[in-house]
Amino acid sequence: MARLSKEALKNSQNFTFREEEVTVPGISEDGEPGTVLVRTPSVGARDRLAKQRPDSVGDWDLKDTARLFAAIVVDPQCTEEEAEAFLADWPGEALDAILVKFNELTGADGEEVDGKRDAVGDFPDSE
Protein backbone atom coordinates (compact mmCIF):
# COMPACT_ATOMS: atom_id res chain seq x y z
CA MET A 1 0.00 0.00 0.00
CA ALA A 2 1.46 3.36 -1.02
CA ARG A 3 1.68 6.35 1.29
CA LEU A 4 -0.60 9.15 0.11
CA SER A 5 0.92 12.42 -1.05
CA LYS A 6 -0.29 15.84 0.07
CA GLU A 7 -1.71 16.33 -3.41
CA ALA A 8 -3.77 13.15 -3.08
CA LEU A 9 -5.11 14.32 0.28
CA LYS A 10 -6.19 17.66 -1.22
CA ASN A 11 -7.73 16.40 -4.47
CA SER A 12 -11.46 15.75 -3.99
CA GLN A 13 -11.45 13.51 -7.08
CA ASN A 14 -9.57 10.99 -4.93
CA PHE A 15 -12.29 10.91 -2.25
CA THR A 16 -14.76 8.07 -1.95
CA PHE A 17 -17.84 8.29 0.23
CA ARG A 18 -19.74 5.19 1.23
CA GLU A 19 -23.31 5.18 -0.02
CA GLU A 20 -26.19 2.77 -0.23
CA GLU A 21 -29.75 2.59 -1.51
CA VAL A 22 -32.28 2.35 1.30
CA THR A 23 -35.79 1.03 0.82
CA VAL A 24 -38.15 3.47 2.49
CA PRO A 25 -40.90 1.46 4.19
CA GLY A 26 -44.39 2.92 4.23
CA ILE A 27 -43.81 5.26 1.28
CA SER A 28 -44.48 4.28 -2.32
CA GLU A 29 -44.74 5.95 -5.70
CA ASP A 30 -47.30 4.59 -8.16
CA GLY A 31 -47.90 1.69 -5.77
CA GLU A 32 -44.26 0.58 -5.89
CA PRO A 33 -41.87 0.76 -2.91
CA GLY A 34 -39.06 3.19 -3.44
CA THR A 35 -35.55 3.95 -2.31
CA VAL A 36 -33.33 6.90 -1.46
CA LEU A 37 -29.55 7.11 -1.64
CA VAL A 38 -27.81 7.65 1.70
CA ARG A 39 -24.18 8.79 1.77
CA THR A 40 -21.63 9.33 4.50
CA PRO A 41 -20.90 13.03 5.02
CA SER A 42 -17.63 14.88 4.59
CA VAL A 43 -15.72 15.86 7.72
CA GLY A 44 -16.91 19.45 7.31
CA ALA A 45 -20.56 18.45 6.95
CA ARG A 46 -20.32 16.07 9.91
CA ASP A 47 -18.80 18.75 12.12
CA ARG A 48 -21.44 21.33 11.07
CA LEU A 49 -24.13 18.82 12.03
CA ALA A 50 -22.44 18.17 15.37
CA LYS A 51 -22.18 21.89 16.15
CA GLN A 52 -25.86 22.44 15.39
CA ARG A 53 -26.98 19.40 17.37
CA PRO A 54 -29.05 20.21 20.45
CA ASP A 55 -27.37 19.61 23.80
CA SER A 56 -30.24 17.44 25.00
CA VAL A 57 -32.27 14.79 23.18
CA GLY A 58 -35.33 16.53 24.62
CA ASP A 59 -34.43 19.68 22.66
CA TRP A 60 -34.33 17.81 19.31
CA ASP A 61 -37.08 18.97 16.95
CA LEU A 62 -38.24 18.61 13.36
CA LYS A 63 -35.80 21.26 12.16
CA ASP A 64 -32.90 19.15 13.50
CA THR A 65 -34.29 16.03 11.82
CA ALA A 66 -34.66 17.91 8.53
CA ARG A 67 -31.08 19.19 8.77
CA LEU A 68 -29.79 15.63 9.23
CA PHE A 69 -32.01 14.27 6.45
CA ALA A 70 -30.81 16.93 4.00
CA ALA A 71 -27.18 16.14 4.83
CA ILE A 72 -27.33 12.35 4.44
CA VAL A 73 -29.95 11.70 1.74
CA VAL A 74 -28.27 12.68 -1.52
CA ASP A 75 -30.75 11.32 -4.05
CA PRO A 76 -33.28 12.76 -4.21
CA GLN A 77 -31.52 15.78 -2.79
CA CYS A 78 -33.64 18.04 -0.59
CA THR A 79 -32.97 21.27 1.21
CA GLU A 80 -33.53 21.46 4.96
CA GLU A 81 -36.67 23.52 4.31
CA GLU A 82 -38.07 20.97 1.84
CA ALA A 83 -37.38 18.09 4.23
CA GLU A 84 -38.96 19.95 7.14
CA ALA A 85 -42.11 20.47 5.06
CA PHE A 86 -42.74 16.73 4.54
CA LEU A 87 -41.00 14.81 7.34
CA ALA A 88 -43.61 15.57 10.00
CA ASP A 89 -46.14 13.48 8.07
CA TRP A 90 -43.83 10.55 7.31
CA PRO A 91 -44.24 7.11 8.88
CA GLY A 92 -41.66 6.85 11.65
CA GLU A 93 -40.34 3.57 10.27
CA ALA A 94 -39.39 5.33 7.01
CA LEU A 95 -37.01 7.73 8.73
CA ASP A 96 -35.79 4.97 11.05
CA ALA A 97 -34.70 2.86 8.04
CA ILE A 98 -32.63 5.79 6.70
CA LEU A 99 -31.03 6.52 10.06
CA VAL A 100 -30.18 2.87 10.71
CA LYS A 101 -28.44 2.65 7.33
CA PHE A 102 -26.59 5.92 7.96
CA ASN A 103 -25.33 4.57 11.29
CA GLU A 104 -24.22 1.35 9.59
CA LEU A 105 -22.35 3.25 6.88
CA THR A 106 -20.55 5.52 9.33
CA GLY A 107 -19.98 2.90 12.02
CA ALA A 108 -21.49 5.34 14.51
CA ASP A 109 -23.69 4.65 17.45
CA GLY A 110 -25.12 7.07 19.99
CA GLU A 111 -22.26 6.58 22.43
CA GLU A 112 -19.56 7.37 19.86
CA VAL A 113 -21.36 10.50 18.71
CA ASP A 114 -21.84 11.68 22.29
CA GLY A 115 -18.20 10.91 23.06
CA LYS A 116 -17.02 13.04 20.15
CA ARG A 117 -19.29 15.88 21.20
CA ASP A 118 -18.02 15.65 24.78
CA ALA A 119 -14.40 15.62 23.62
CA VAL A 120 -14.96 18.63 21.36
CA GLY A 121 -16.65 20.39 24.28
CA ASP A 122 -13.52 19.85 26.38
CA PHE A 123 -11.26 21.13 23.60
CA PRO A 124 -13.32 23.66 21.63
CA ASP A 125 -10.36 24.78 19.52
CA SER A 126 -9.77 21.22 18.30
CA GLU A 127 -12.11 21.58 15.32
Q: What's the short version?
A:
It contains six helices and three strands, in the order H-E-E-H-H-E-H-H-H.
Please provide a written account of the structure.
By secondary structure, this protein is of the alpha+beta class. The chain has one domain: Phage tail assembly chaperone gp13-like (rbstp2171). It has 6 helices and 3 strands, in the order H-E-E-H-H-E-H-H-H. A 3-stranded antiparallel beta sheet has the order 1-2-3. Helix 3 (62-72) packs across helix 4. The relative contact order is 0.14.
SSE arrangement:
Layout lengths: L5 H5 L8 E11 L2 E8 L3 H10 L9 H11 E3 L4 H8 L4 H15 L3 H13 L5
Antiparallel strand pairs: 1-2, 2-3
List keywords for this structure.
127 residues; alpha+beta; rbstp2171; 6 helices
Could you give me the name of the CATH homologous superfamily? Answer: Phage tail assembly chaperone gp13-like
Give the second-level CATH assignment, the architecture. Answer: 2-Layer Sandwich
Largest sheet: 3 strands, antiparallel
Number of strands: 3
Tell me which oligomeric state these chains represent: single chain
Q: Return Rg in Å.
A: 17 Å
Cα shape: globular
Low-confidence stretches: 112-127
Name of the CATH class: Alpha Beta
Distance between the termini: 29 Å
Query: How would you write the strand order of the largest sheet?
Result: 1-2-3
Beta-strand proportion: 15-25%
- Provide the residue-averaged pLDDT: 84
Question: How many domains in all?
Answer: 1
Q: What pattern of helices and strands is seen along the backbone? A: HEEHHEHHH
CATH topology: rbstp2171
Approximately how much helix is present in the residues?
40-55%
Helix-strand category: alpha+beta
Q: How many helix segments?
A: 6
